[in-house]
Amino acid sequence: MKIKQNQIQDTNKINLQSHQEKFDFLSNSLIKTGTDVQSIVNKLKDFQVAIPSWALGAGGTRFGRFGFYGEPSNLEEKIDDIGVLHSLTQTAGAVSLHIPWDIPSDYAAIKEKADALSIKFDAVNSNTFQDQKDAAESYKYGSLSNTSKAVREQAIQHNLDVIKIGDKLGSKALTVWLADGSCFPGQNNFQTAFQNTQDSLIDIYKGLPDDWKMLVEYKPYEPNFYSTVIQDWGASLMLANGCGDKAYTLVDLGHHLPNSNIEQIVSILQLKGKLGGFHFNDSKYGDDDLTVGSIKPYALFLIFNELVYGMENNPQNPDLAWMIDASHNVKDPLEDLIQSLEAIQEAYAKALLIDQKALKAAQLENDVVKCQEILQGAYRTDVRPLLAEARLKAGGALSPIEAYRSLNVRSQLITERGKHTVATGL
Ligand SMILES: [Mn+2]
């Protein structure tokens, strides 16, 4: 299934006049305050977020999984789905592959398909959190941290294989997330587990091409419930520093204990030039993997404020690998991803509206009230016409959800693929 440009233009016709009125009104009021509206629209147009290859099907919990009809059952179909998302939103121009769930069978054909849909291959993700069929060793008690050298070597080799696969597709980063840890006190020696992980990561790092990055993701709990080896950004940063200049910390929104100040974490990592990647989702309790912006949109805005500050003031920090890392248990995965992409763009646009000069002046005067007024003034602005304008200029849909529904995408996918398909890895 491929959405044609003229189909999008047809759906846009209905909303075009109303969009123009809303955009002109907002644009005029912003210009009066000295805002460069065109520059914000261009930045929104350029901002692309990778879709992980595991997010196109219905997710589930340890209690069960309820499938969604017409799911993509192979990598080709997953790329097609991202093509649908990208053509509507013009924001999903990259895919992040999970290995071994999505190893291409024909590299040239997959690249050609992705190219035709303007989709790039972003970071590749290794998997040492579950055992693979016919694997010699088990990850039940950890992978890179395991007490057994044979297990560690198998996990290192897997990561090196993932780099090779990514390299053939044009990826430039490896994301390592470990489930390693312990479920009960006394099960692990913390120091040995950490040192084993550092040594294993160094072995993987040695196989990293010169123009690649290694992204080290952290998580405080789950699937291990007493300790995780890479529990927080400090542990991740130590391991990245232990590897070298091409290793960075990756922040996943859901991988924090409740009320962690994530905006402060991303800010300091950027100051040190060590923030390499960012995973979007939202949560109420833990790693809930909910739609971005569905629970704490203001927190997301504050995080984007720091990200924007870093992008503008920290040349020592590289461009970030942006990815949505969510699970769609009760919604159509494509509709959920469209909502997430919209929430990301909305938080980004609001952060771009912050008058950084005025904020700095208020901070220097310790005018706390003014500081809050500036932040919340930006946050309370309805920026959706800016997002719609960016999409319109890029050839996308004014209202992606409306277009997705009026073009009957899901029912066409069901006709093409059948009802009871299951995405690889789910
Ligand atoms: Mn993640």
Automatic annotation (TrEMBL):
Keyword Manganese: yes
One GO MF term: L-rhamnose isomerase activity
Gene3D superfamilies in UniProt: Divalent-metal-dependent TIM barrel enzymes
Keywords, alphabetical: Isomerase, Manganese, Metal-binding
Enzyme Commission no: 5.3.1.14
InterPro entries in alphabetical order: L-rhamnose_isomerase, Xyl_isomerase-like_sf
Claim: Transmembrane is one of the keywords in the record: no
Superkingdom, taxonomy of origin: Bacteria
Top enzyme class: isomerase
PANTHER family: L-RHAMNOSE ISOMERASE (PTHR30268:SF0)
Protein name per the record: Predicted L-rhamnose isomerase RhaI
